[in-house]
Design brief:
The chain has 204 residues and is an all-alpha fold. It contains 12 helices and no strands.
C-alpha cells in the first residue's frame, strides 16, 4: 500500500489549479460523509512514479525536494483520474487514457533514446495522430515538448547531485551534442550547466 497524507488546507491549495478547476472542496468530494473509498486500478502513467518512489526510498537515493515533486505529480494523476472526472472533461475513453499514459511511461524510461512518434504509436496501439492529440489533451503539451521538460528536470537533478560531468548528464538525458544541451538548459533555467555544477561542487 502507498499512501499520501496532507492537511485539508494543502489539499485545497493544490486542487484549485488542477485541470483548470476553480474550486474542489474537500467536503464536497467526500459527498457529505466522513470518508470516501475509491477503489480503482491506478493509471498506467502512475506506475513509473510509484516504482521510482518505492525504489528510491528503499535505497535512500531520493532527497526531500525530489520526493515532494514526484509525490505531487503522482497525486495530481490520482486526483485527475479519481476525483475530478477527467474522462468526462477530456472526452477520452478510459482505454485511450491508459494507452497515452503508457506512451508517457515509455518516453520517460527511454529518455536517452526515445522512440519516434510512429514507433511510439505502434507500441501503445494508437495511430500517431490520435496519440498526438490525446497526449496534449491529457498533459497539456506535445509528446516531445513534454519530453524536453522532463529531460531538463532530470538534468537538473543529476547536476545537483554532482556525480556526473556536463557531457555525462547530456548523454544521460538524450543529447548527443553537449552544446545543444547547454543551450536548452540555459534557456530553461537561466544558468549554464557547467556553472551550476561548479557551484554545487564548491558547496560539497
Amino acid at each position: 500500500m502507498f499512501s499520501i497524507g496532507m492537511s485539508v488546507g494543502v489539499f485545497h491549495h493544490f486542487m484549485t489549479s488542477i485541470g483548470g478547476v476553480q474550486k474542489a472542496d474537500f467536503n464536497r468530494l467526500l459527498g457529505g460523509k466522513s470518508y470516501r473509498l475509491l477503489q480503482e486500478k491506478p493509471p498506467a502513467s502512475a506506475s513509473a512514479s510509484l516504482h521510482h518512489i518505492t525504489a528510491s526510498l528503499r535505497d535512500g537515493t531520493m532527497n526531500n525536494i525530489e520526493l515532494e515533486y514526484t509525490v505531487l505529480e503522482l497525486l495530481e494523476l490520482a486526483l485527475r483520474t479519481l476525483l475530478e472526472g477527467k474522462e468526462e472533461r477530456t472526452g477520452l475513453s478510459r482505454e485511450t487514457q491508459l494507452r497515452v499514459g503508457e506512451a508517457r511511461r515509455i518516453i520517460l524510461e527511454q529518455m536517452d533514446n526515445p522512440p519516434s512518434l510512429l514507433q511510439l504509436s505502434r507500441m501503445v496501439g494508437l495511430n500517431d495522430y490520435k496519440l498526438k492529440v490525446s497526449f496534449k489533451e491529457m498533459y497539456g503539451n506535445t509528446i516531445f515538448g513534454y519530453l524536453r521538460e522532463k529531460r531538463m528536470e532530470q538534468a537538473l537533478k543529476l547536476l545537483q547531485a554532482g556525480k556526473s560531468n556536463v557531457i555525462e548528464v547530456s548523454c544521460a538525458v538524450g543529447y548527443s551534442n553537449p552544446s545543444h544541451f547547454a543551450e536548452a538548459f540555459r534557456k530553461k533555467f537561466g544558468v549554464n550547466p557547467s556553472a551550476l555544477l561548479r557551484e554545487n561542487s564548491s558547496r560539497m
